Amino acid sequence: PVSLADLASLEFSSLLPPHGVYRARILSVRPWSPHTRLGQIGLGGATSGEAGDAVVVELKGLWADKAMRRFRKGDVAILLTKGADVIEAKGKKRAGAAEKEQAVRLRYSRGLTGWIRRMDGSEEVLRYEVATSNPAPTVRAKRLHPPEAMDVDSPLPLSTSKSSPALVAHPTKVSPPNEGSRSKKRRRREEQLGWGFETADKMTYTTLDKLGDIVEKTDRTKLQTLRVNIVGVIVDAGEVKAPRVAGRDWYRSFLITDPTRLDSSIEVQWYAKGEGGLPEPHVGEVFVARQLAVHDIAPATKTSTRCWRIRLGEEELKYAARVARFFAARAKASTPSAAEGAPMVPPGAAILPPSLAASVTEHLKKRTSAAGSSREFLRIEQIEEGKFCDLLGMVTKLHSDTALTSLSPHQAASLYITDYTPHPLLHDYPSPSSVGLPSRLTLQVSLFGSQAAPLAALINPRTGEATRGALVFLRNVRIKANESGELEGTMVEERKFAGRTDVEVVDLRRKAHEERWGERARQVQRRHREYWAARSLARH
């Protein structure tokens, strides 16, 4: 542990302890700037009212854009000193306490590791790394100097012996990938050792290729209690899924493989009572798990209230390292080198065996297209009558004669949204407009029953009006034409899924929302600013 007082007393270019960690409360946040690629947070006493020296932490680089969105004023940050540099403060130093504040700035340029403790008691892990490529060092070939052609200025001594026969340069033998003597020796060793193992205390780790046989040989009445231990490599990290019905579990699925199953992957499904109970997998990491339930050859963890971790023994660590080396060798052999002018491979992508890439891509297509359906994530300008789609837009008006949380399946609230893309078949509202925007920019969506319940959070209790400009995501909207031939949207409460909602209020401060809708939301916000800026100029 490193105290704030120790950090505040550091001089410019001082060295930080390589394995240090410090804790402080976030006093201020300066957002990341795309011009300087720099963001700042001011840190002070770790608890409310605690005195402490102020320290300024800077995050620099493209990675810092996403990292800065995680910091909020009032939370407690616990950060590792690894990768931090002490840099000189800008401006003139002042006397007294202010001199300490200005004398210390810590800058992270190569990533950041730590976690955040929110004011509500929850914790979030911070891990950002800058991907770097380490090309193999090139060895400069020695230049041959024939004695009869050597210049007097040559750094090599002149030969005093008789002329020797000319040296013949033999071509270097280069083996194809995975065909060299070391690769063959490694494969022979792996064949002898085999995959899967049993620990000294009789705990068996099963390879993924045997799961199908285990399921077939297990009696159906005992399948519910079947548990397996596995070791694999993550090839797709998946995404967090919020419960669509109140009281249900949060969910995340990700794909793994191992050396025995290179042509296809297996899905791991993880359930938790809250978002904090879900793991944060990364492509290329080794996944070791015990006591996983097996269902249709898809291992799934038990429901948990927190993201638990296990303590691995020496045998398990050695086996996990062996699996990692296997995939690292395959990735190295299948990745073109930069010297050949090949494009840079994204971090973690090289871990995919070539035979598995198509399988993962097909799985992702099914998962991102609403479980294999033809529903698309559209802009309002792209909607068509008779089709179902997903939409993201800004609220311009919300109307309901009944409380949004009390609507029956036959009652509807009228939601008006826009993403500032026009459609010729929308209603042409006059200016000024009762729905906030004139012309054909606003889509009316009727939300029946429980579909409207999430929007209750947007209602101002004092005025009874909805917050205009709030972002909402609508899943599975049916587009239809009204009696005038104008397009509208409808979302009904299905009887077999009573209480389920397909409406979410988007909050980009939440990591899951930022990762899922961040890019599309910022496009809507940009068009919003451009539209009102043009309207303002037109008035003048």
What do you see in this structure?
The protein is α+β, with helices and mostly antiparallel strands and 540 residues long. It folds into three domains: 126 residues, OB fold (Dihydrolipoamide Acetyltransferase, E2P), CATH 2.40.50; 130 residues, OB fold (Dihydrolipoamide Acetyltransferase, E2P); 164 residues, OB fold (Dihydrolipoamide Acetyltransferase, E2P) (Beta Barrel). It contains eight helices and 23 strands. It has an eight-stranded mixed beta sheet with strand order 5-6-3-2-1-4-7-8. Strands 11, 12, 13, 14, 15 and 16 form a six-stranded antiparallel beta sheet that branches. Strands 18-19-20-22-21 form a five-stranded mixed beta barrel. The chain starts with a helix and ends with a helix.
Number of helices: 8
Quickly give the structural class. Answer: alpha+beta
Shape: globular
Named CATH topology of the largest domain: OB fold (Dihydrolipoamide Acetyltransferase, E2P)
- Which regions are unreliable across 5 or more consecutive residues at pLDDT < 50? 92-101, 141-164, 301-307, 337-356, 367-373
Question: Tell me, what is the CATH class of the largest domain?
Answer: Mainly Beta
Strand order in space, largest sheet: 5-6-3-2-1-4-7-8
Give the helix level as a range of percent. Answer: 10-25%
Query: What is the number of domains?
Result: 3
Work out the number of β strands: 23
GO molecular function, one term: single-stranded telomeric DNA binding
Family: Belongs to the telombin family.
Organism: Rhodotorula toruloides
Subcellular location: Chromosome, Telomere; Nucleus
